[in-house]
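Pasting as-is:
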Amino acid sequence: MRSFKVRAFGAPLVEVTEAEPRPTGTEVLLEVTACGVCHSDIHLRDGYFDLGADGRLDLSRGLPIPMTMGHEVAGRVLALGPDAAAVSDGIAIGDDRVAYPWIGCGTCPVCRSGDEHLCRAPRNIGLHAGGGYSDRVLVPHPRYLLRHDGIPAAEACTYACSGLTAYGALKKVGRLHAEDPLVIVGAGGVGLAGVRLAATVAGVAPLVAEIAAARREAALTAGARDAIDPREDGAARRVVKETGGAAAVIDFVGSAETARFGFDILRKGGKLVVVGLFGGGISVPVPHFPLRNITITGSYVASLKDFEELLALVMRGNVERPQVETHRLDEAEDMLCALRDGKITGRAILTP
């Protein structure tokens, strides 16, 4: 098995060759055919999230080192553990599957409710368990392996995080009326997934706020009704004047600047959904909450049931196809650097 691992936080990935794992119990061994490079992998490799005001959320205690990142994984079934066939509902060696990576302990009340992505004892692929920056991945149970019939692996893997994250955030917004403005902040891989899904899930085409001209063009191609640069003088005031204020804003960047922009353009009764993990912090006067009747909520990926729903939409042809670019597995470090520098539009995919 060939992998590119985090051996020290903040340091470049290291290539490691080791024995191929053997699945036990209900485990399934996948030969990785495609793995997305996610912006959150940059923070995982660094070992912290920026909280603003010189604060950091230290990840080093909760993540195993060495660590193989990569949580957007599609692959082909190579081997089944001795108990996997009995609980697999027909999965067989040679099947192509995409893995749901947000795996919990399976026994706590949160997991039993179906929200195991919020479990306090996670076993997430690519974080707490070996991920797809490798040519092999162990998945603990066949129920986490979903069909993607007719969808190429390099596309299917993106739905496990960028697509699912966008889908979960849009479900928090809910269905909007035609006159209810939806603003999406950020048109990276996840933001563009939100643009492509918005009409199907929320019922409206979004206005996109993005600082990079190439990404604004990509957002328009993906179905945005308009795209603006939020750094321009008076951008927030113009949005409010032209739309009456946003009914909902989804911030796929999650910086101090984007969260402030999203908050400032909300109309009364509006909702700000913060998804991105770029970092920083904002100060909000408490009276704004009751006087403007606003809601600020976070959104963290989504459930296995949501993943099933999303893949069903994709396989029915109800979702625009994502823009992906494929790269060799040994380019993993280069792709992380390119992503950090804002040089990737869409999604970079590693193909072992």
